[in-house]
Amino acid sequence: MIKVGIVGGTGYTGVELLRLLAAHPQVELLAITSRADAGTPVSQMFPSLRGHVNLLFTHPDETRLEQCDLVFFATPNGIAMQQVRALLDAGVRVIDLAADFRLQDIATWEKWYGMTHACPDLVGEAVYGLPEVNRAQIRNARLIANPGCYPTAVQLGFLPLLEAGIIGADSLIADAKSGVSGAGRKAEIATLFSEASDNFKAYGVAGHRHLPEIRQGLARITGKPVGLTFVPHLTPAIRGIHATLYGKMAHETDLQALFEQRYANEPFVDVMPAGSHPETRSVRGANCCRIAVHRPQGGDTVVVLSVIDNLVKGAAGQAVQNMNIMFGLPETTALNNVPLLP
Amino acid sequence: MIKVGIVGGTGYTGVELLRLLAAHPQVELLAITSRADAGTPVSQMFPSLRGHVNLLFTHPDETRLEQCDLVFFATPNGIAMQQVRALLDAGVRVIDLAADFRLQDIATWEKWYGMTHACPDLVGEAVYGLPEVNRAQIRNARLIANPGCYPTAVQLGFLPLLEAGIIGADSLIADAKSGVSGAGRKAEIATLFSEASDNFKAYGVAGHRHLPEIRQGLARITGKPVGLTFVPHLTPAIRGIHATLYGKMAHETDLQALFEQRYANEPFVDVMPAGSHPETRSVRGANCCRIAVHRPQGGDTVVVLSVIDNLVKGAAGQAVQNMNIMFGLPETTALNNVPLLP
Amino acid sequence: MIKVGIVGGTGYTGVELLRLLAAHPQVELLAITSRADAGTPVSQMFPSLRGHVNLLFTHPDETRLEQCDLVFFATPNGIAMQQVRALLDAGVRVIDLAADFRLQDIATWEKWYGMTHACPDLVGEAVYGLPEVNRAQIRNARLIANPGCYPTAVQLGFLPLLEAGIIGADSLIADAKSGVSGAGRKAEIATLFSEASDNFKAYGVAGHRHLPEIRQGLARITGKPVGLTFVPHLTPAIRGIHATLYGKMAHETDLQALFEQRYANEPFVDVMPAGSHPETRSVRGANCCRIAVHRPQGGDTVVVLSVIDNLVKGAAGQAVQNMNIMFGLPETTALNNVPLLP
Amino acid sequence: MIKVGIVGGTGYTGVELLRLLAAHPQVELLAITSRADAGTPVSQMFPSLRGHVNLLFTHPDETRLEQCDLVFFATPNGIAMQQVRALLDAGVRVIDLAADFRLQDIATWEKWYGMTHACPDLVGEAVYGLPEVNRAQIRNARLIANPGCYPTAVQLGFLPLLEAGIIGADSLIADAKSGVSGAGRKAEIATLFSEASDNFKAYGVAGHRHLPEIRQGLARITGKPVGLTFVPHLTPAIRGIHATLYGKMAHETDLQALFEQRYANEPFVDVMPAGSHPETRSVRGANCCRIAVHRPQGGDTVVVLSVIDNLVKGAAGQAVQNMNIMFGLPETTALNNVPLLP
């Protein structure tokens, strides 16, 4: 059994981790911390967990996380970097679901996140936890930077095209739409039901923190900087990201075959039949990215449609997938549930 | 392995049965029929099932359902009664998710459903599949009438009070609210997104088919006819039923203790702590009924709040629960998933 | 022209007042205050008002409200009672959309609102602004207590029955459902999109502040205390209240005729044809209460369905209706827009 | 008074026309036809119109539309072209809200709409009813082709850039999102609440009928064919279109000033302040297009955000705007209502 701790379990990625881990046959959940809600039963805050999780939130200062084999950080940005070194020193492996270790360039990170990084040396060690790209390194990693939700959907969509050099990399467009849970479980007016329901809007057009993360990931593939315009939008759904990706073909190829071959052995990437339009609900609650590739009117623009559940393949599910890889378990352990539709 | 067939699998109870059965370790799914969609892969109609269900819909006339141990009918009302006798004669057990065998009084059934019943003799044999009431009879039944969604939520809410004679039975009120999936996967204007979204309404106040079913169930408890006003409403959610039940106290008792004791050994009924307000999302995707009992301002009106997922405890999940009982499996097999929240 | 000021215009009743007043031919909007947002253009906070309202929010301390003919308070409870006396002394008439002057019994008010009332003497003068009951008194009032949203829907539904003594008043039930905007424009987790969407729940079963307000209103009709159980629910719609009301018939009558006669001359109460089920969207954005009365299966339980838009007939629209009455204008001035459907 | 008739009033553009025309001081509504619902009161189908529209639907064969000054066709594609000639011959002016007269190239029209055009000669006479481009021609037109919803949002967004030659026209991208009412009031499974809610998807990537309409409109501006990739999506909102437009800068300019100057005199196009993100709800129910223009990270990609209410500026509102122009009325007559927010 893997002894697991969770730091910061009162947000949506926290409750989603609990949902997945409660059904994991190789996990023993030791502790889940919350500074604000220490002493509260987890199932009081999240009644969906009644009968499944019997822990209380504990105060981080009174929780002996060094007894864990693995600790997940489901905290706001800037928390994990304060605590990771001590855990690693104690032999605990760490998966950070926040952004502290996602950007290798410290200056870029500090600019976008508005903080001084607490442990730049550990950034270099951290492995970016996108299994479809980094599976081998994840296996032995001590510290995983779990990818962001938009970056997961966008990178998996562009990956086959850029690896094969089929599209130019200087003028990519990612028009992405997210359900509201992507904004987290925070008391804010902009994400109230009466504000976000029956509405649609773009946000962060001038710049979103996931932009440098996506650029970094795509540049690793192409070996040089990419030109990317990234426009995120808010759609009135709870879960789901839909990325609509645009690129210009530089070389002819069978796009459908390219995608099918690239992901033939990936358990969590589903290349849909030619002509498909994947729906976000088709992955609701599941650790799955469904992709379709189009070439409208046979022109030179490639359109990729990529959908994930932002809380699963875009967060907690991918974290469990990384855990499975790190601990030598079958990668699909506890991640093979059928999406909830309708 | 239980060899299972499904008749009529293109509706919401059908896809929900498939979601649950795909994860059931003791089930081998032999066939799923659809007159209109024979030849279509199930996963083409429901992409959420890609990788989980590889069957094609088959034409009912070309499907050898008599090879099954158990057949589920997820058909419109009036279909199962045409086919059940042949299956029973072939030694196949049957669970009907529609209403054909729910009402013991044939005349009542024919009045509310507007059809002549095809096999009145089998109605008498059919067991009403509410395990919290009929577990023993379910075990040996050949034919199960799976309860309706409203009747499940309402009966489980009133049950402890009526069994103990705590409230009068002559003037009960059930004000019930259902998500739109309760109306089924049918092309109709009234349940279009643009009609049902951002809206709330009552319907069927003059009379709803679940009224006689609920009355029958409650009368079995009290031993005499009950007076019940039942008002269903449509709420803009996909899944979920919330029944708000009102009764007049006839005798003093500790209501909380009464409910907790009645359901102490029930795996799928969760009595919430005193003062709770169960939310439909707390059971989303799960075979669970959560109940809270209130006595506002200490008066003589008892208010019970009872929530289920209409497609799970109100349909497909309860059907699988009945199957587990019928075949001697642990009752929670394949039904222990954590609800999807948010 | 009526010179109008609004105190506290950043909530939903505030922006709704602005929407209605911007189209009012006899209103000159002098000022709208906000302590937190002074200096911000109103149309920056609410882009829907661009081109319609050119004011800036001003600080209450720097706003000369005594120059107004009428001031609306769209503030949280407890604010208006601090400021009303000075305005009245300056000859300004006041409509309070909050609850400060709704309950005539000071002790009851202080118990439910948890505050000491600042001006109990003015409570006696305040007129409860339900025109269908108090039109004559409203005409000459200096101070109007604008009714709550639930109380409006519930009182208008019970009114004809209780006035005529058709139902008993000792055991009324009001099962009411509200859209989320009823909770206001406040940063709170419980009303986030990801919490309130695709969900349904009751709340405040033990006691809600609108209970004593409804009881007071109904007791005025019957001349003695009424027995009322009131259960509010949250439904995932932005606007709309649907009250489902239950009473026991004490005397036979033609219910449909009773309702039609009672409201024959009311411009904003629409008695639907017999057998109707009014939908909340049928009054979306309009100052209208639609009502249907049923007697299921011809029994002795009367069921009334009453719908309003909580922000219009349940708040800002009713306030403008009261203003029209107070200033001798045609009652429907600026209130005759067609509901927005779909 | 303008005598107005409506052909085909049972869809969403029909009821929206009725909402707007009911408040129009210069319109006398003579008749509204429906083959299927002849004899039904309009307000029975749409209770929101109770008290505002007292007409019954009449059978088209029994309706003397030639008595009208103006007839709106709110019919499916292919109906107006059968009836327009007779009306024009009788001196009636016509606004077609469907697509029969939108494409000047008959072969293109017949390919995309799968029908033989019934009156190609009238297509040449028809004026494309986008006032911001064709105001002068609209004034004297007998026959108006009212633009599609997507084409309105997309053309108004690209217009200033293409007129001024600021972006290249060979590689435009329009990533557009529509609320579900855009699919019309038709009984179809794909637009059921339980299918379209809590979901997001693209559709028609291979080709959508609005693509040639947009291309035609943009080519009129540039004087030569444009390269455009158009990807429509379905978002779970009732109303609203959000077009996110991408182009490559060919020449430097002050983008904000360009847009503000182009639309300075347009009553229904609102250029938002620099850095804005217009929300669809900010135009809910109003005949308004709000636009923001961005240049992310100062690069050479221009991003335009353009929102409309698909049923108003994208259909019925624009039709009334055209009517106002045609009959010499102030263009904003009956179109100046404040959007409904929240």
As laid out across the biggest beta sheet of chain A, the strand order is: 3-2-1-4-5-7-6
Q: How is the main sheet of chain A built?
A: 7 strands, parallel
Number of helices of chain A: 11
Q: Which pair of chains forms the biggest interface, and how many residues does each contribute?
A: A-D, 48 and 48 residues
Number of domains of chain A: 2
Comma- or semicolon-separated keywords:
alpha/beta; 2 domains; 14 strands; 7-stranded parallel beta sheet; Dihydrodipicolinate Reductase, domain 2; 342 residues; 11 helices; homotetramer; Rossmann fold
What does this structure look like?
- The structure is a homotetramer of 342-residue chains.
- Chain A is an alpha/beta fold.
- Chain A has two domains: 124 residues, 3-Layer(aba) Sandwich (Rossmann fold); 162 residues, Dihydrodipicolinate Reductase, domain 2 (2-Layer Sandwich), CATH 3.30.360.10.
- The first copy, chain A, is built from eleven helices and 14 strands.
- In chain A, the strands form two sheets. Chain A has a seven-stranded parallel beta sheet with strand order 3-2-1-4-5-7-6, with helices on both faces. In chain A, strands 9-10-8-11-14-13-12 form a seven-stranded mixed beta sheet.
- In chain A, helix 1 crosses helix 11, helix 6 runs parallel beside helix 11 and helix 7 packs parallel to helix 9.
- The longest helix of chain A has 15 residues.
- Chain A is globular and about 60 Å long.
- The two termini of chain A are 35 Å apart.
- The relative contact order of chain A is 0.14.
- The model of chain A has no long low-confidence stretch (mean pLDDT 97).
